[in-house]
Amino acid sequence: MNRHEHANGVVTYTFETLADLPMRAHVSTRHGGVSPAPWTSLNFSITRGDTPERVQDNFARFCAALGVDPTRRVHTHQVHGTGVAKVDWDDAGTRQQATDALITDAVDLPLLLFFADCVPVILYDPVAHALGVCHAGWRGTVNGIAAATLWAMQAAYGVNPADVRVGIGPSIGPQSYEVGEEVYKMALAKLPNAERFFHFPNGTEAHPYFDLWQANAAQLIEAGVPAEQIEISGIDTAQNTQDFYSHRAEQGQCGLFGILAWLREK
Predict the structure, then answer these.
(1) What is the pLDDT of residues 5-55, one digit of tens each?
(2) Domain count of the chain?
(3) N or C: which end of the chain has fewer CB within 10 A?
């Protein structure tokens, strides 16, 4: 990914393979905000103890760095599910209920999701000029949120998976994400050949480590997206708390970072 240090102190990351396309997708970091510890500093969560005033100021700073009107953004009430909301300019400034993905073909409409270890996935079709963003924690991954977002884009905009470009953003990595046996068993029941997404450094299935990056990439590949059109950031939030929030590494004492994506005129 490419790192950008903006004039107001905000730092963002973008996907290298999406850089020359008529869309933008910026992942925020924890830099450039006003929140004190433990949310230091560009926190977007009002549910983890920070004040609404500081969170609003943080988001305004993020949007100012990107040249985006913060009142236009569409965001969601994320529930770790597979719901996908199709949005357009009539939805500007709204919070979509009980959904973990947004899709649009509306130019300049900013889509916003929040993270602190779960996987941000960006999908863009340059032919249909359609955009999707999704939030894939372990539940969303196991239940197919990435593929559900792609299918929703196919239904809404006639997207051809062979044309889709994908960015899989900073999130907890396969060397950090130990899960319980129940997660492993659910993945085996839901995902084809799920064993390939786990390793067992402790030598027992009671302590598996889950590769969310490859699990989401595989869903999209199996749905028709060429593997060479998927960029995986490789940034493990649990090992990079200097830049990103990590619910696991910081034991819940942290904020949320965001991904803001929008279409530009072709």
Answers:
(1) 999 999 999 999 999 999 999 999 999 999 999 999 999 999 999 999 999
(2) 1
(3) C
The rounded distance, in Å, linking the Cα atoms of 151 and 199 is 29
What whole-number distance in Å separates Cα of residue 62 and Cα of residue 139? 29
Contact status, residue 18 vs residue 124, Cβ threshold 8 Å: yes
Could you give the count of Cα atoms lying within 13 Å of 34 in the half-sphere of its Cβ? 13
Mean pLDDT of 82-99: 97
Residue 257, beta-bridge partner list: 115
Reading phi first (left if > 0) and then psi (alpha if -120 to 50, else beta), residue 73 is in beta
Q: Which residues pair with 203 in a beta bridge?
A: none
CATH number at residue 135: 3.60.140.10
- Residue 84: beta bridge partners? 101
Residue 257, judged by CB atoms within 10 A of its CB (0-12, 13-18, 19+), counts as buried
Spatial contact of 261 and 131, defined as CB atoms under 8 Å apart: yes
Tell whether omega for the bond before 41 is within 30 degrees of 0, i.e. cis.
Answer: yes
H/E element, 261:
strand 257-263
Q: How far is CA 35 from CA 93, 170, 251, in A?
A: 23, 21, 18
Q: Which residue has the tokens 């004040």?
A: 51
For the cut 80, the answer to whether the pLDDT of residue 202 exceeds it is no
Question: Range of 138's domain?
Answer: 2-263
Task: Extract the tokens encoding 43.
Answer: 């926190």
Share of the chain above pLDDT 90, in %: 97
